[in-house]
């Protein structure tokens, strides 16, 4: 038994409200259950109840056992002085406020249908990939679609917090935030942290000043990433070294905090050399990139915006020291989709939110036009139940698995709530 289950029962009124009595046989009528509080303090604010014909307005505290009131030291906490009803599963002791006045206690166990408890225990004791794995296919399509939309917004809200931290550090420079996020996502999972540390190793004002020259940008990125430290006798490489030494001295660049790059187990098109060159070409080609991003609304427009390729040298190379078959190293649509999902849409959402505007409809329209991501989480959910295949679905399912399923937060999940209620 978890306290969250009692919160669920109270919040959704999943108990028999007729003939309610306190442990002292006082008649209880519920006018308002109150507002669920997820922070410190009583569990439900601003509830209204009638106890023995006396109306009370205040807070409700919920515990497994009455004695938990003392275990949590509520008797000495002023925040609990306005508790009007103590709701418990097992009553094992009377409780009192700080001023020693008794608090009415309602023992819920006699008012909850046994089938509800059985459904809850069955769900929480599951040893499957997710607790509701055997029942997931039975979830109502409409409810699942709405829940995935809500989960996607939750995911954007979480990313917004990180974006606002970057914005504060960058002194409200959205272009600088965009650059840092692009760096991280150009590095993908393997080199994301390294690329992000590279972005943090130089002030964005320097990138602005250098962005008029594509080769200088490459030199700065490669140099800060410690890719120009070898003895390679190549005209392009030697030119980059010379340019970087000039830029390093001019802007007092320091790369001691830049994390090492990884090449191992990467497909050659994802080598950091290729991605850094592509990033440099993008920053050179698209001046004032953030303002352009705000104006675009369709995936096709973004595919055109991000139509860049690595510089000429990289047509015949993946690393500095070895030539390869000549092929253009362009940003693919699948890679641009990742930029849309992880950089563009979170930024557009956060920017609108910062201005006090709603962007949900525009964000939904764009994310739904992007192909669903392929990963183990998404593939497993799709095995359990056919779901609309868009990037919003994959983002929502990732949020569901990592923030609800993995943390056993079934009672706070629309799917878990429906299954528990359905199986009563």
Task: Give the mean pLDDT.
Answer: 95
| Radius of gyration, taken over Cα atoms and rounded to an integer in Å | 29 Å
Oligomer: single chain
The helix fraction, in percent, is 40-55%
Which stretches of 5+ consecutive residues score pLDDT under 50?
A: none
Q: What is the overall shape?
A: elongated
* Structural class computed from helices and strand pairing: alpha+beta
The tally of helices reads 17
- Series of secondary-structure elements, N-terminal to C-terminal: HEEEEEHEEHHHHHHHHHHEEHHHHH
Can you count the beta strands? 9
* First and last CA, distance: 17 Å
Major pleated sheet: 7 strands, mixed
Strand content: 5-15%
Give keywords.
424 residues, two-stranded antiparallel ribbon, 9 strands, 11% strand
Write the layout of secondary structure elements.
Elements: H1 3-11, E1 20-21, E2 27-32, E3 35-36, E4 44-51, E5 54-65, H2 68-71, E6 83-90, E7 105-107, H3 114-124, H4 141-169, H5 174-186, H6 188-200, H7 204-210, H8 214-224, H9 235-251, H10 272-285, H11 289-295, H12 299-305, E8 317-319, E9 322-323, H13 333-354, H14 360-367, H15 376-384, H16 391-405, H17 414-422
Parallel strand pairs: 5-6, 6-7
Antiparallel strand pairs: 1-2, 2-4, 3-4, 4-5, 8-9
